[in-house]
Amino acid sequence: DAKTTQPNSMESNEEEPVHLPCNHSTISGTDYIHWYRQLPSQGPEYVIHGLTSNVNNRMASLAIAEDRKSSTLILHRATLRDAAVYYCILYPSVTFGGGTRVLVKP
Amino acid sequence: DSGVTQTPKHLITATGQRVTLRCSPRSGDLSVYWYQQSLDQGLQFLIQYYNGEERAKGNILERFSAQQFPDLHSELNLSSLELGDSALYFCASSVTGGDNEQFFGPGTRLTVL
After folding, report:
1. Which residue is closest to A94 within chain B, CA to CA?
2. Could you tell me if A44 and A94 are in contact, meaning their C-beta atoms sit under 8 angstroms apart?
3. Are A37 and A87 in contact (CB under 8 A)?
4. What is the mean pLDDT of chain A?
5. Whole-Å CA distances, B101 to A44, A85, B20, B21
6. Helices and strands in chain B, H and E counts
């Protein structure tokens, strides 16, 4: 089964940038790359999404490789509130893996 | 508040029983997705409906079924429940599909005893 591949966990210090990679080598031409995060005891929440070009919003930046087989979510300055599981999900195929648990150290 | 509502919040039932989980999407959203999240597993995609029609299927068991009604709310029916069906069930909605962000509901926690 096709799925995205992410590291199980990553640690960061507060106020430092976090780069979360995602491999999606089987991505189709119509798939958008979405990122969601799930805080403890909550439903996932939208972070950012894109198709081919890099994207920025108030929460994060999304860098998409030229061949679209990988992408990186960038949290510019991690805060303790950014500690969550981050999922890279392809839509409309709904392809995803286990997510990355981000730990932020004060 | 994402604008997606799910009822009930919690459900406790016994093995072999049947339950129905309800999801009301955000106003204007045509697409509804159902996900299961077990304690020891990550998110699993179950099924997607778009404007009343099934659009994509994930790892949904034959004991589970779903539908989307003309008013766009959706129901997930789980039957012949087993202990392993205990999980959080999330519903998400979006305007159409891939090119729109998903809005997730707060989830229904199902406990099968």
Report:
1. B45
2. no
3. yes
4. 94
5. 12, 18, 26, 23
6. 0, 11
Place of tokens 């093995």: B15
pLDDT in tens, B29-86: 999 999 999 987 789 999 999 999 999 999 899 999 999 999 999 999 999 999 999 9
Q: Does B90 touch chain A (CB under 8 A)?
A: yes
Amino acid identity, position B22: R
Q: Tell me whether residues A94 and B42 touch, CB distance under 8 A.
A: no
Mutate: best of A94, A96, A100, partner B, most B CBs <10 A = A94
Q: How far apart are CA A76 and CA A59, in angstroms?
A: 8
DSSP code, position A35: E
Question: DSSP letters along B28-78, please?
Answer: T--EEEEEEE-TTS-EEEEEEEETTEEEEE-S--TTEEEEE-TTS-EEEEE
CB of A17 within 8 A of CB of A78? yes
